[in-house]
Specification:
Elements lengths: L1 E8 L2 E6 L2 E7 L19 E6 L4 E7 L5 E6 L4 E7 L3 E7 L7 H10 L4 E7 L7 H12 L4 E3 L8 H7 L4 E5 L6 H8 L25 E4 L4 E4 L24 H4 L16 H7 L5 H12 L6 H17 L1
Parallel strand pairs: 3-5, 8-9, 8-11, 9-10, 11-13
Antiparallel strand pairs: 1-2, 1-4, 2-3, 4-5, 6-7, 12-13
Bound molecules: guanosine-5'-triphosphate, magnesium ion (MG) and zinc ion (ZN).
Amino acid sequence: MEGTVTRGINNIYTVSSPDGTFLCRIKGKILETKEPEYNPLAVGDHVQFNRTSDAEGLITLRLPRRNCFQRWNPKGLANQTMAANVDLVLAVCSVESPPFRPRFIDRVIACSRGIEVAIVVNKSDILYTEDELERIELYRKLGYQAFSVSAKTGENIDVLKARIQGLTVALVGQSGVGKSTLVNSLIPSQSQKTGELCEKYNRGRHTTTHSTMIEGEGFVLIDTPGVREFSVWHDDPHLISDAFVEFAAPSEKCEYHLCLHDNEPGCEVKHEVEEGLIDPDRYESYIRMLHSLDDKTPKWRRALEKDKEDVKKDY
Ligand SMILES: Nc1nc2c(ncn2[C@@H]2O[C@H](COP(=O)(O)OP(=O)(O)OP(=O)(O)O)[C@@H](O)[C@H]2O)c(=O)[nH]1
Ligand SMILES: [Mg+2]
Ligand SMILES: [Zn+2]
């Protein structure tokens, strides 16, 4: 039988199939995956399973993924898949409480690994600052759709609903930005648990503890748990710049063709930052992501060293 993982807690996965919903364990505990991963299965994964009773089963195979949203899990020292097989990632942030953090959005874009991203700025019932408006405008100029909504007052929720028709959508963002409140306002029959902010630190309390897939009218949502710090996945550092669309054209002209736009000589990306053509904060955001990979995993570093050798050869 085949189905979709809609939830996973303590190695028990809820699998939705045309024959109903089954609570499944993984057969033999470990599924074969190409890369070592923090979690073998994520919400959104398509699986094959054997039915063992009316409501239970054993998962035997994870079917190939169309795409996945991954972050680096610093405790597990591995990439963790937060959602698989999605059409759109909504990078959710809030105007205030927690404060608007564009670098968080950049990280969400990086972790989306090629999945289309749209930005949702929630809590529009709170006043924007000039800086915030400018940054949102910058994302629009770069080609991202950005929705200003309020899950509290319902402002623009219908616009967002129209955008996600027919799609499977993952909501990702810091704790407390209002992802679960948004789910509840997009699907009124839902009552995902939501949490008050921690007043002292003006941030969320990690109310949602695991990803869940929820069906709406003509769309499917994946509510994910907010994280305080969002580390980018560790694979090939060269892929991080893919999250910065404005780097694409100048990077063609970098002296080294595997330039990481850091300290390499003749870097056209850096040159454009100096010329004011690339936003300096976006560049800083990139550099921080790149440097955050340092000393985390030997795997990518080996890849980097190998690339450097290739550069020497090419040059
Ligand atoms: N002012 C205002 N507050 C909102 C809005 N949306 C959500 N909130 C509040 O923000 C707080 C956090 O909301 P949640 O939906 O629990 O946030 P979350 O992103 O799901 O947080 P985690 O599950 O911890 O990742 C709650 O107190 C909500 O009432 C909004 O549009 N405006
Ligand atoms: Mg939540
Ligand atoms: Zn460069």
